[in-house]
Amino acid sequence: MTDSTGSHARSDPATLRARYEEEIAKRLVEGRATIRDLTTDEVFSKYREDPFTPVARRNPVIEELDVAVIGAGMAGVVAGAQLRKVGMQRIRLIDKAGGIGGTWYWNRYPGVMCDVESYCYLPMLEDVGYVPKHRYAYGEEIRQHLENLARRFDLLDAALFHTGVLTSAWDEERAHWVLRTDRGDELRAKYLVMAVGILNLFKLPAIPGMEDFQGASFHTARWDFEYTGGSPAGNLTKLADKVAGIIGTGASGVQCIPHLAEGAKELYVFQRTPAAVGVRGQCPTTDEIVATMTPGWQRKRMENFQAVMLGRPVDVDMVDDGWCHHYGPLISMPRRDGMSDEEYLAELERFDFEVMELHRRRIREIVRDPAKVEALMPYYRYACRRPLFHDDYLAALDRPNVTVVECPTGIDRITAAGVVVGGKEYALDCIVYATGFEAEATALPRRAGHDIRGRGGQSLAEKWAEGPSTLFGMMTNGFPNLFIMPAPGQQAVVTVNHTLITVVGAEHIAATVAGLEERGVRWFEVTEEAEADWVQTIVEGATAGARAVMATLPCIPSTRVAYDGTEPAMLTARSGSYGGAGLGDYFAFTELLASWRDAGDFAGLRLVLEQPSSRAVHGTDAAALGARATPAGDAGAR
After folding, report:
1. Which of 375, 401, 433 is the last residue of a domain?
2. Both 617 and 559 in a single domain?
3. Beta bridge partners of 67
4. How far apart, in whole angstroms, are the C-alpha atoms of residue 91 and residue 81?
5. What is the DSSP string of 103-133?
6. What is the structure's pLDDT at 549?
């Protein structure tokens, strides 16, 4: 691979390997991933408060529901919309936020946008006839689109905002879920959908002295516009006489740093690991794009992008951006017949080296300050960290009012006046923590944030202590009438465009509910046999194939780790995807779900009918069945 000048990577493989190993060694610091527990931290728990919407007083809600959906972000809204489509009437979304949007509600920092193309990322565009304004949507547009979806499907007025669920418990006698909240609500729902999101827990590092700082401080997921002025579009006028510091150069940092650099008198960027930032190529939506929007266009485009990410041949790469040029070919590089593990790893390494050299060359071309060029050079495997894209980030760092402070081992401490790195204190008026979120693969019980109890009082956290146990990544034995929206590390598949698997999961859940209701089912439960078979399939796939070999690559320490409490947790083979390691096989997965639905026998589920009837259920006479549980079809669903 060459860049536009046709030249190849500047360094030989041995030199690069040595440099990469050196950078890894710098960052192997004990306690580097320790974070504050914001559920108990007396000083910093206030960081989680909602700065955007006042909490409205209301009376507790006591009611019966068809479906309770925990989460009013994209997953909750899309699930609710699909359930509306199949005729479910009494639906409530429940969320700690003050409105619709999930991560797009909380993240309103200046410059917030999505790195995945808007025509793929904004869900259900055809349902509402909406055309995104730009190739990559800004956060405010995404939030408003999700709110419009909720309004369109009559989900907005019934939502319970600023409401945290304390417990979800299955009532065996009445065959429904009982949810109790921190607002005194008691909701009794036939079905429960966990749509708690994958980036809902922001991280705050445990740095000595944080509580001593006398200036302003906040996390990017709770931006303080009262202090900075401006809006998500930028224009931070109140920083004109301020010295600001930002800790973190991940996705959030990369997007807000240009606005901080423009608004602040001075900006210090505290960088533990340099970001590899590719070309974004932002532009308004063109007439040519609009002309492609014929019926079925969005799913076609989404799946075309997913095919490219999986290394499948396509006639036309519809998205054709940095994900497609670098990330997809790297994570899905085909393995030729007869190629040994060593040969395959060498091929991956060669491609990875060249991709990273293109990123380093971009820094040399844009940044004029030689000292900053050296500080910003990323020396690590491209596949080890989340790809980043931005058109203005590097130029912003080159401004004379911006100082890049290298701190590979972390920050020494924070004082009343500022931040100390390498024994030097940097005096600041405010600190912005752009320290990101707990990983997408963080275990569901932690992301849900409350106690979930199934049959016999069984705890989901205890059941999943050694890793998830599911059928299709969306149902689990011992927890009747519970659906879980698919997520990374949860035995479904992974999509770079998470919207795609969100839509697929919501459609599958809604279709399953519709079938259960038509059949007159009181409750269903995954059989132990079906769950065991699915788990075995996931475990076997996690240790086979080219992507499993790729997982052995040496990586620089990353903040993209899952947590158990405040300590990093290792993902196991049970946290894998259907169809193999890494992303899994989206197309095989969706075909399997469609075949399961089309068969109509609910294979792998045990069903109990609401009332005896004359209808036969899976070859079993319903009158004889009564309230007994019976396996539905083949319990060994795969």
Report:
1. 433
2. yes
3. 91, 191
4. 10
5. HHHH---TT-B-SS-HHHHSTTHHHHT---S
6. 67
Per the domain annotation, does 86 fall within a domain? yes
Q: Are residues 531 and 420 in the same domain?
A: no
CB 258 within 8 A of CB 111: yes
The DSSP secondary structure of 29-97, one letter per residue, reads: -TTTT-B--TTT-TTTGGGGS-SSSPPPP-PPPEEEEEEEEE--SHHHHHHHHHHHHTT---EEEE-SS
What is the C-alpha to C-alpha distance for residues 493 and 290, in angstroms, rounded to an integer? 30
3-state helix, strand, coil in the chain (%, to 5): 35, 20, 45
Statement to judge: residues 516 and 614 lie in one domain: yes
Residue keyed to tokens 């007994």: 628
- Please give the Cα distance from 358 to 182 (Å, whole number): 51
What's the length of the chain? Answer: 638
User: Is the residue at 314 inside a domain?
Assistant: no
For residue 405 the two structure tokens come to 């402070």
Are 548 and 558 in a shared domain?
A: yes
What's the chain's Rg over C-alpha atoms? 25
Do 512 and 565 fall within a single domain?
A: yes
Report the alpha-carbon distance of residue 32 to residue 213 in Å, rounded.
21
Q: Which CATH number covers residue 30? A: 3.50.50.60
Neighbours of 532 (CB within 10 A): 15
* pLDDT block averages, 10 residues each, the chain of length 638: 40 88 89 85 92 97 98 98 98 98 98 98 97 98 98 97 98 97 98 95 94 97 98 98 97 98 98 96 97 97 97 96 95 90 91 96 97 96 92 98 96 98 97 92 91 97 95 98 96 97 98 98 98 96 72 69 50 88 93 98 96 43 34 34
Quote the CA–CA distance of 139 and 518 in Å, as a whole number: 39
Residue type, 187: L
The answer to the question of residue 294 being in a domain is no
What order do you get walking across the sheet with 521-526 strand by strand? Answer: 521-526, 605-609, 630-632
Q: Are 126 and 64 in contact (CB under 8 A)?
A: no
Burial class (CB in 10 A: 0-12, 13-18, 19+), 216: middle
Instruction: Give the domain range for residue 516.
Output: 62-201+439-624
The whole-number pLDDT of residue 633 equals 39
Beta pairing partners, 562: 569
Strand pairing category for 616-617 and 620-621: antiparallel
User: Residue type for 365, please?
Assistant: E
In the chain, how many domains are there?
A: 2
